[in-house]
Specification:
Layout (H helix, E strand, L loop, with lengths): L2 E10 L4 E10 L2 E7 L10 E4 L4 E4 L1 E6 L12 H10 L2 E6 L10 H14 L3 E4 L15 H7 L14 H13 L4 E3 L12 E2 L2 H6 L3 E2 L1 H18 L3 E3 L5 H12 L4 E5 L1 H5 L21 H12 L5 E2 L8 H5 L15 H10 L6 H8 L1 H6 L15 E5 L4 E2 L18 E2 L2 E7 L2 E5 L1
Helix pairs in contact: 4-6, 6-7, 7-9
Bound molecules: N-carbamoyl-L-aspartate and zinc ion (2 copies).
One zinc ion binds next to loops.
Pfam families: DHOase (PF12890)
Catalytic activity: (S)-dihydroorotate + H2O = N-carbamoyl-L-aspartate + H(+)
GO molecular function, one term: dihydroorotase activity
């Protein structure tokens, strides 16, 4: 028995038109795509009616925090993947800043086992660059790669020593593995709650300067050039970083980059009060930086959109701004936010947005995913593009409720998510 998804709207990337199609899935893979008008042979098969809804390749998020092991009160692989499925994501890449850090094969195996037994979407694990993310000793890249790590990153902190980063890049390059960098120079203001901008000034707060990110981006681009590694910049937030990445790409250096919805949609001037739901790292920057992020995703300087889904508990986020941890959740709001604010407004085509959340990340990280085609895994997302609904954190499947987008009236809500042809979430 197979499964038919009937009457879905598939995006024709050539003309950005939505066309009605029927998709037949067998043994987890897309087996047939039938034109409207042709009567599909549904006898004896399961049928899903997608009448009028968008059927997209499942979204891919190359930057999430699922907190397991060690911080299960914030999120688990079970709740994190549920949250992902609800957001229409079928593949997510997990950051290693758990407790313990994913810096050895035992911890990596633990994550893989949990993903296998409790995860409802595909989970790809990153491993740390340095032991305990302390920046002192490199982890065992060879062993971690062999066990299934897809790249190396100390996300959460910057690798402070240029020599350490260079050694890591040489090693990763020799193994054909990417280095993924959280860019933050700790000799500049570090740990402040907001950017060095209007909000900081108004409230008499110290601010994190743009250079603390961009100095690492510039340094690492030079090191990537010297080592030949595939270097990927995490959560780009400043116009200076964009400038450096743009130039590096022009020079043919192997650099790729990601941006988060919040850095495309919010600036420090939007922060309403001293509220930790607006605190994340990197922080919301100035309106000029937001403009630069939009330009950079539009011209291809930034390759993909990621959420940096970073759940924290209610109690942690209720602390005063300086004490509260950095991070906001993102999986359940990413697509509706971007669809409503960029596609509905006519700034982007639907196919542009979907590419940045499917094909592009798959391309950059060599994943066999991100496209609806015969023979591909049936990782699919069915999205209602019409119904308008307000963001309500009490409905999140994530344990985290920490979002600045509460109450935003959005369209483009996923209604059903399939992984390998199985419905893993349905509203
Ligand atoms: N982005 C955040 O604000 N927080 C992340 C760490 C990180 O991505 O650097 C976290 O682990 O909570
Ligand atoms: Zn980070
Ligand atoms: Zn992160």
């Amino acid at each position: 028995m197979g499964t038919w998804i009937l009457n879905g709207k598939l995006l024709n990337e050539k003309n950005n038109e939505l066309e009605t199609r029927h998709i037949y899935i067998e043994q987890g893979k897309i087996n047939q795509i039938v034109e409207d008008g042709v009567q599909p042979q549904t006898d004896g098969h399961e049928c899903i009616d997608a009448e009028g809804k968008l059927v997209s390749a499942g979204f891919i998020d190359m930057h999430v925090h699922f907190r397991e092991p060690g911080y299960e009160y914030k999120e688990t692989i079970a709740t994190g993947t549920k949250s992902a499925a609800k957001g229409g994501f079928t593949t997510v890449a997990c950051m290693p800043n758990t407790r313990p850090i994913v810096d050895d094969v035992e911890t990596l195996q633990f994550v893989l086992d949990k993903a296998e037994t409790e995860g409802i979407v595909r989970v790809l694990p990153y491993a740390a660059i340095t032991e305990n993310e302390l920046g002192r000793d490199l982890t065992d890249f060879e062993a971690l790669k062999n066990k299934g790590a897809i790249g190396f990153t100390d996300d959460g902190v910057g690798v402070q020593s240029a020599q350490m980063m260079k050694d890591a890049m040489y090693k990763a390059a020799a193994m054909n593995m990417p280095v993924i960098a959280h860019c933050e120079d700790n000799t500049l203001v570090v740990g402040a709650a907001v950017t060095d901008g209007a909000f900081a000034k108004k409230h008499g707060l110290k601010g994190i300067p743009n250079e603390s990110e961009a100095i690492h981006v510039g340094r690492d681009i030079l090191l990537a050039e010297a080592t030949g590694v595939h270097y990927h910049v995490c959560h780009v937030s400043t116009e200076q970083s964009v400038r450096l990445i743009r130039q590096a790409k022009e020079l043919g250096i192997k650099v790729t980059a990601e941006v988060c919805p919040h850095h495309l949609l919010l600036s420090d001037e939007d922060i309403p009060a001293l509220d930790a739901n607006w605190k994340m790292n990197p922080p919301l920057r100035t309106p000029k930086d937001v403009e630069a992020m939009i330009e950079a995703i539009e011209d291809g300087t930034i390759d993909m959109i990621v959420t940096d889904h970073a759940p924290h508990s209610e109690e942690e986020k209720a602390q005063e701004l300086q004490r509260a941890p950095f991070g906001i959740v993102g999986l359940e709001t990413a697509f509706p936010l971007l669809y409503t604010k960029f596609v509905k407004t006519g700034k982007w085509t639907l196919s542009f947005l979907i590419q940045k959340m499917t094909e592009k990340p798959a391309d950059v990280f060599n994943l066999d995913a991100g496209k609806i085609k015969i023979g591909a895994e049936a990782d699919l997302t069915i999205v209602d593009l019409e119904v308008s609904q307000a963001v309500d954190p009490s409905t999140f499947l994530s344990k985290g409720r920490n979002t600045p987008f509460t109450g935003w009236e959005l369209q483009g809500w996923p209604v059903k998510t399939l992984v390998a042809g199985k419905v893993v979430w349905s509203n």
